[in-house]
Amino acid sequence: MEKVKKVIAPEMALFEEYFKDAVKSKVPLLDRIMHYIVKRKGKQIRPMFVLLCAKLGGEVNAQSYRAASLVELLHTATLVHDDIVDDANERRAFFSINALWKNKIAVLVGDYLLSKGLLLSLGNGDFKILELLSTAVKQMSEGELLQMEKSRNLNLSEETYFEIINGKTASLLASACAAGASTTFNETGTIQELRSFGEKTGMAFQLKDDLFDYGKAGIGKPTGNDIKEQKLSLPIIYTLNNCDSKTRRKLLHTIKNENRKKEKIAWVVQTVTEHGGIEYAASKMFAYRDAALEILFQFPESDTRDALEELVRFTTDRSY
Q1: CA distance 47 to 8
Q2: Which secondary structure element, helix H or strand E, spans residue 90, and what is its range?
Q3: What percent of the chain has pLDDT over 90?
Q4: CA of 264: how far to CAs of 40, 191, 226, 239, 242, in Å?
Q5: What is the SS3 assignment for 38?
Q6: What is the distance of C-alpha 10 from the center of its chain?
Q7: Which end of the chain has the smaller Cβ count within 10 Å, N or C?
Q8: Among 213, 310, 318, 320, which Cα is nearest to 3's?
Q9: Can you tell me the distance from the alpha carbon of 223 to that of 25, in angstroms, rounded to the nearest whole number?
Q10: Is 244 exposed, middle or buried (0-12, 13-18, 19+ CB in 10 A)?
Q11: For residue 185, what are the CA distances in angstroms to 54, 55, 252, 297?
């Protein structure tokens, strides 16, 4: 992402300072945990989208940085809580918060991050940004709960799958782009266009994550992880809808009862591949990517637009 780094390097450096300041605490334990989180930050794609969407409309300003900080605070809070729900001991190749400080503290850390984000916006009167991001948090919770509900009986339609990933992943990126745009654009229609741009990019992003489950080891997500957790992603949903009844029964039985056996997971991956499930999911991923780019290309050509295009393509071309 050389173009992205070049275009917003100064803004990302300043964002880092905003974010560090936003998570500060007077409680020594919390401060140590916040330091651990800041030092082990991820790719920070969402703040990049916030700042680039803002830059598309004019000069990045203090409100833009607060919007980027709020997005990262909320995203980090959801990751901390997700690790508790999933009983995950690792996050980005490091120990998760719950692994180091146990679940009770991790829950409170997630709550702290959420409250810091809310106070950051309220304290500066950023009510529109707060509304956008609060809506995303609601949709993320609904998406996760819908997935849990449907996973119990392994009954998931393609339509419901897209509803789930729209809520759990795309909603945050959509709100991030809209929040960034709202700090420099005055037109409601333009802000909504960039929200739609973020939503479609988020859908492509989640489809790429789901495809990792059927790839090779060492690309950031263990092969068969979703199968082990009985999560039905698009490749397997497509296969279940396009295979004979015997194969369907065997797939459902394997996912439900034999999802910890390596040879069984390998069989599921092979069956999904042979029935075109991976190819179908990839085609949907690229369709969402292209739809996002179609919206983006409505804006005048510029280095900022080029950087956003590069960031969108990264979501589908990444290997981690």
Answers
A1: 11
A2: strand 90-91
A3: 62
A4: 35, 47, 13, 16, 20
A5: helix
A6: 24
A7: C
A8: 310
A9: 38
A10: exposed
A11: 8, 10, 49, 17
pLDDT digits (tens, 9 = 90+) for 229-265: 778 899 999 999 999 999 999 999 998 888 788 888 8
The pTM is what? 0.90
What residues are paired with 90 via a beta bridge? 95
Task: Compute CA 311 distance to the chain's CA centroid, rounded to the nearest angstrom.
Answer: 14
Q: What is the pLDDT of residues 240-250, one digit of tens each?
A: 999 999 999 99
Q: How far apart are CA 59 and CA 89, in angstroms?
A: 41
Burial of residue 250 (number of CB atoms within 10 Å: 0-12, 13-18, 19+): middle
pLDDT tens-place string over residues 267-282: 998 999 999 999 999 9
Give the amino acid at 113. Answer: L
44-75: b or e for each residue (b if 16 or more CB lie within 10 Å)?
bbbbbbbbbbbbbbeebeebbbbbbbbbbbbb
Owner of token pair 């489950």: 213
Rg (CA), the chain: 20
Instruction: Give the whole-angstrom CA distance, residue 194 versus residue 295.
Output: 8
CA angle 281, 235, 87 (to 5 degrees): 115
Contact (Cβ atoms closer than 8 angstroms) between residue 193 and residue 273: no
